[in-house]
Amino acid sequence: MIDLHCHILPGIDDGPTALSGSLAMARKQLEAGVHTVAATPHVAPEMRNTAAAIAEGVAQLQAALEAERVPLRVVSGGEVHLGLATELSDDELAALRLGGGPWLLVEAPLSPAATGVDALFRAVGDRGHRILVAHPERCPDFQRRPEALRGLVEDGMLVQVTAGAFAGRFGNTVRRFALELAAERLVHDVASDAHGPHGRAPSLRPELEGAGLRAWTVWLTEGVPAALLAGTELPAPPVEAPPAAPSQRRGLFGRLFRGPDAD
Whose CA is closest to 135, among 3, 2, 5? Predict the structure, then answer.
């Protein structure tokens, strides 16, 4: 499998503080069945990491992995703060793309005060960057306005959901929204967003299988992420339909797909 969102570099953000933690995370990734990881440190106002610093960190970590005979491939990337993405130069954003490919991982805001975030995503996309939206299931604005996220997908952006969201690790509201997105085929990639070898540790397959997405696991964790790194067309999705969305929520998706009188 390929994990396109992992805070594995040491001492650069809120991931491991030392190389030993990064090596422990790498071993956890291998145990989880992952062979390639995108190192995606925060690139945010409070953590002003640069593409050059991230690339250097990736090279140092890869050398350490080889010295320890840990057969994990690490590629460069970044989890770019949406507001900062509108300010950074196009050259810097291009250098932050995942694995040197065409896709840029941009973080959906977690603050309930953030509104109109789809307009900011479009402002970055209109500059020629292909955007993978990180953890929109945790974004209150998208929870309130799921049609805004659908519009971004219709515009060509892709959606990355954190595996732990399917297991309820960020609360029931996030879990239900993640399952709704999967049911409506609005999830293209699932990543760990791991921050350490313990607690928020690397894991993908159990969460997907627990959500009833066993048939989609290869597509979400191997086929699509490989295409994103290579800059090729996405593979065809599985024929099997994803599980139906939870019946507890009666939001916009329910009105769109059950009709206005369904309640």
Answer: 5
Which among 44, 193, 179 is positioned nearest to 109, based on CA atoms?
A: 44
Tokens of 11: 């001492």
The pTM score is: 0.93
Task: Report the distance separating Cα 69 and Cα 148, nearest Å.
Answer: 45
Sorted by where each begins, the domain ranges of the chain are: 2-258
Are β-strands 79-81 and 73-76 bridged in parallel, bridged antiparallel, or unpaired? unpaired
CA gap 144, 24 in Å, rounded: 38
CATH 3.20.20.140 fits 2-258, yes or no: yes
Q: Is the distance from CB of 216 to CB of 183 less than 8 angstroms?
A: no
Give tens-digit pLDDT for 180-230: 999 999 999 999 999 999 988 999 999 999 999 999 999 999 999 999 999
Residues forming a β-bridge with 133: 106, 159
